[in-house]
Design a protein that fits this description.
Layout (H helix, E strand, L loop, with lengths): L15 H46 L13 E5 L1 H12 L8 H17 E12 L8 E11 L7 H12 L3
Antiparallel strand pairs: 1-2, 2-3
Helix pairs in contact: 2-3, 3-4
């Protein structure tokens, strides 16, 4: 027969709080440890994503020519020129007629290849400690980012010279 504690000083009510504490305390400890474990996991993932994004943008801003300090081993340039070449030629095929067509195609083709042909992937990993309750050791989170390379700035005079040299080669 189980006793219901209506009166706090009754003999059958002794130790009820201690038994409840023994049952509930491990659950609270697991929840407490889990909160810090999830926090470490999320912070690690955010740090990895942030580093990948920062390195990708810094590298892209330099036309994918110079790896920024601290980004060694994070960046990989992806050349999509093979996939893009056929599409660019098809798009420019309508502009090849007449006298101006070849000039337009010659001026636009390098810009289109540069804009759509090169991109970069940045990926990095961050590690964090796993609590002993969850097996201990070190776990890793990864972050990645994909971005197109920026074009090298050209002035209007350089574009005009390129067009003239295409029309009247020396």
């Amino acid at each position: 027969m189980t006793a219901i504690c209506i009166r706090p000083r009754h003999n059958s009510c002794r130790g009820t709080a201690s038994v409840e504490a023994v049952i509930v305390l491990p659950v609270f400890i697991i929840i407490f440890v889990s909160v810090f474990y999830v926090r470490a996991q999320v912070l690690s993932r955010q740090a990895a994503e942030s580093k990948a994004r920062t390195c990708a943008w810094a590298y892209s801003m330099k036309n994918c020519n110079e790896i920024p300090p601290g980004c060694e081993g994070v960046l990989q340039v992806v050349s999509g020129a093979g996939q893009v070449d056929g599409k660019i030629e098809k798009a420019l095929s309508g502009a090849t007629g007449g006298l101006v067509g070849p000039v337009i195609a010659k001026v636009l083709e390098p810009a289109l290849k540069a804009a759509f042909g090169r991109s970069l992937d940045a990926s990095t990993q961050e590690s964090y400690q796993r609590p002993a309750l969850y097996g201990g050791g070190t776990a890793t989170s990864s972050g990645s980012y994909h971005l197109a390379c920026n074009l090298t700035p050209e002035t209007a005079l350089e574009v005009a010279k390129d067009a003239w040299n295409t029309l009247m080669p020396f």
